[in-house]
Specification:
Layout lengths: L8 H12 L11 E4 L6 E5 L4 H18 L4 H30 L3 H21 L7 E2 L6 E9 L2 E5 L7 H12 L4 E4 L5 H18 L7 E3 L4 H9 L3 E7 L2 H13 L3 E5 L4 E5 L5 H13 L9 E7 H17 L18 H16 L3 E4 L2 E2 L9 E2 L2 E4 L15 E7 L2 H9 L3 E2 L1 E5 L3 H8 L8 E4 L11 E2 L2 E2 L6 E2 L8 E9 L15
Parallel strand pairs: 5-6, 5-8, 6-7, 8-9, 10-11, 10-18, 11-16, 15-16, 18-19
Antiparallel strand pairs: 1-2, 3-4, 4-23, 12-15, 13-14, 17-21, 20-22
Helix pairs in contact: 1-3, 1-6, 2-7, 3-4, 3-6, 4-5, 9-10
The structure holds nicotinamide-adenine-dinucleotide.
Length: 509
């Protein structure tokens, strides 16, 4: 394993990329500077791919599709099995690069790579289970069935905060479903993308006969992404990022009748009921709200605590916020690492000011400067006691802020819970079966993820992942999310000597 303490982060990142066999020739001299949030230092300056280069990548992917779609799915699964093996071998290195580029703790960096390994395992099994149905037909001597076929080129656009896992959720599924991938990673995390490509290239080399350009990375920002979004040969655009980005991408893909999976922002809440196990709730809330420095789409951002337990739970939470360790994730065992950049810090401070103006009492939230380089942004997570769900509470600020509110009536707290734009993740802490079931029912949480006695973050890959409303409605990862990556055909076969028409229609000529 590379020990980043022994070298500057630029050198550490390149050492990892070299070891993985990535092409490091183009890391300098470009216009797209990339920084490590750990120290704020610049670690690369890559050239952005132009729209013409993206089009050329899609040309190559379209050619790869024509042969990959005819490879039997279990054989396609073999490539993903090899990818899983390569990821196991590269887990420490890739996890460390995630820490350098996204500022995650080593445990969270390694956890993200584990998620990649898990989705590969899932997809290998899936490669033998791309089932269709046989459906009862109303016509004698007929058979009706559903078949699933590869869809086409899949474009993946990803956010900085899960720089590698989101690619693997999409790519493992896309590959077994018979589709090539063109990936535009976040402009803030290009190096981990190059590392992933190198790891997949190793698997492809071992696989032997995969078509060229089955998986490609295009580097750049919004414009590079737009070239992917607008190309009609990109059958599916899977875009992960802010709701602002989704508002731009969704209509553009729809305008050309393309398919999209939108995985957008969250404003996730927890509800603590009178019967809750408060020790368990405390730990779950602390991880959900402060983990990854509040930079998960599933971070807990709102908390409703019943009047009867508020004074038992909230002072303990405030104490935990005061004592949580904040610091360099590579050189310390701190639980909370840096914000991604100065913009994130400014957005956090603006939200805290707005919360104060709306009557909130802020605990924490100050910048931590002890031993931190000036260009890095470390903050104490903030807990804000709010009189009501107003102002900044209604929006996602991508930073560690938890807004805490009291409630007394279960029915109205569910209404409050659902009264925000986003609909990603939610949780309830209760040992009362009625409350738990009501929360999970049709009139309960309106989110794509609803948990009981677990925080809002840290989903497993086996379930479909995604959310409703302004979170975009997309689903990826487990369950039957694979269906979005395939073309469904309904086939009816007449093996009789007659031609009965459906619905009893008569048309005798
Ligand atoms: P962002 O929206 O700034 O950028 C995300 C990606 O979209 C980047 O690759 C960016 O270059 C690209 N992009 C932006 N505008 C585009 C456009 N018009 N056309 C094409 N591409 C465009 O998000 P971020 O700051 O990197 O990530 C944080 C956000 O992502 C948060 O809102 C978080 O909740 C969300 N997120 C959601 C999920 C999820 O699964 N729901 C997962 C991770 C992050």
């Amino acid at each position: 394993m590379i020990d980043a303490r022994d070298m500057d982060l630029k050198t550490a990142a390149r050492t990892v990329l070299d070891r993985l066999g990535a092409d490091t020739a183009a890391l300098d001299g470009g216009s797209m500077a990339s920084f490590s949030p750990v120290t704020g230092e610049q670690i690369a300056a890559l050239a952005e791919h132009s729209a013409a280069e993206v089009t050329a990548a899609i040309d190559r992917a379209a050619a790869a599709f024509r042969s990959w779609r005819n490879v039997p799915a279990p054989r396609r699964g073999e490539l993903v099995r090899l990818l899983g093996e390569e990821l196991r071998a590269a887990k420490d290195d890739l996890g460390r690069l995630v820490s350098i580029e996204a500022g995650k703790s080593p445990s969270e960096g390694a956890g993200e790579v584990q998620e990649m390994i898990d989705i590969c395992d899932f997809a290998v099994g899936l490669s033998r289970q791309l089932y269709g149905l046989t459906i009862a037909t109303e016509r004698p001597g007929h058979r009706m069935m559903e078949t699933w076929h590869p869809l086409g080129v899949v474009g993946v656009i990803s956010a900085f905060n899960f720089p590698v896992a989101v690619w693997s959720w999409n790519t493992a599924l896309a590959l077994v479903c018979g589709n090539p991938v063109v990936w535009k990673p976040s402009e803030k995390t290009p190096l981990t993308a190059l590392a992933c490509q190198a790891i997949l290239d190793r698997a492809i080399a071992r696989f032997g006969d995969a078509p060229a350009a089955l998986s490609q990375v295009v580097i750049g920002g919004r414009e590079t992404g737009e070239a992917l979004v607008d190309d009609p040969r990109v059958a599916l655009v899977s875009a992960t990022g802010s709701t602002r980005m989704g508002r731009q991408v969704g209509p553009r893909v729809a305008a050309r009748f393309g398919r999209s999976i939108l995985e957008l922002g969250g404003n996730n809440a927890g509800i603590v009921c009178p019967s809750a196990d408060l020790d368990m709730a405390l730990r779950a809330i602390a991880f959900g709200a402060m983990g990854t420095a509040g930079q998960r789409c599933t971070t807990m951002r709102r908390l409703f605590v019943h009047d009867g337990v508020y004074d038992q739970l909230v002072p303990r939470l405030i104490k935990a916020y005061g004592s949580v360790s904040v610091g360099n994730p590579l050189t310390s065992r701190a639980l909370v690492g840096p914000l991604v950049d100065g913009q994130a810090f400014a957005a956090m401070q603006a939200a805290l000011e707005a919360a104060k103006a709306a009557g909130g009492t802020v605990h924490g939230g100050a910048r931590v400067t002890d031993a931190a380089p000036e260009a890095a942004f470390y903050v104490k997570p903030a807990l804000v006691e709010m009189p009501a769900q107003t102002g900044p509470v209604l929006e996602e600020t991508f930073a560690p802020i938890l807004y805490v509110m009291r409630y007394s009536d279960f029915g109205s707290v569910i209404e409050q819970h659902n009264a925000v734009g986003a609909g990603l993740s939610s949780s309830i802490f209760t040992t009362d079966l009625r409350e738990s079931e009501a929360f999970l029912s049709a009139s309960g949480s309106d989110c794509g993820i609803a948990n009981v006695n677990i925080g809002t973050s840290g989903a497993e890959i086996g379930g479909a992942f995604g959310g409703e409303k302004e979170t975009g409605g997309g689903r990826e990862s487990g369950s039957d999310a694979w269906k979005a990556y395939m073309r469904r055909a309904t086939n009816t076969i007449n093996y009789s000597r007659d031609l009965p028409l459906a619905q009893g229609v008569v048309f005798d000529i």
